Amino acid sequence: MNNTLYSIIGITIPFIGTVFGSGFVLLLKKNLNEKLQKLIVGFAAGVMIAASIWSLILPSAELAEEQGIINWIPATIGFILGIIFLILTNYFADNVAEKRKGKKINMLMFSVTLHNIPEGMAVGVCFAGFLAGNTGIALMAAMALSIGIALQNIPEGAIISIPLKLQGMSKRKSLLYGMLSGIVEPIAAIVTILLLNIIVPLLPYLLSFAAGAMIYVVMEELIPEMHRSKKSVLGVIGVTIGFVLMMIMDMAL
Fold first, then answer.
1. Residue 67 has what DSSP assignment?
2. What is the CA radius of gyration of the chain?
3. Burial class of residue 4 in the structure, from the number of CB atoms within 10 Å of its CB (0-12 exposed, 13-18 middle, 19+ buried)
């Protein structure tokens, strides 16, 4: 097997993780009670908060240091721009074509998709280094990153497809939309390999931009949903489970 084929397999692995996670929607019963929905919404919030910190902001700071930039500058700039971008997107969604019903899930899918783009770029950087052959990046190191991101993508795929099904969408369509949120990763990886010298300097800003977008959705959409109608500790439990699970996966992998 040549290096190009290894690379194609490697950049596809994270997408497989998203597909697997989205597939959990096929096991879902027709209806869920309100308490379980609160638990799922809380879980989604916890996953997104942890992913924003360990998958996005901390790597942004590390990449900035490697580029000789003060580590908090790209993280701060990107994060604020991500928040502003989602505020504007939300504003235009309310005032142009989007009805309130269904907007929460659309914003959730949008922010997770944004989060997947810089992750795909990170995979692309590793495999570009492997293909170059003179960067010290071995095949197993690049594959390890792909597998780690794929495992992280399992709960992220689930938090897209399951809420879509709960909103009334068919299981097949919910699965499809969950999968589409992850297809951007191999695309971003390929684009990064082709345009490596242009994209790599922007990665610290792109990572933190995605973090800002995800935190906006947590604050604006998911936390209010957790406390809709009667307050429930299940939402807090869901956040805790989602955060701890994603934290462990990020730190261990």
1. T
2. 18
3. exposed
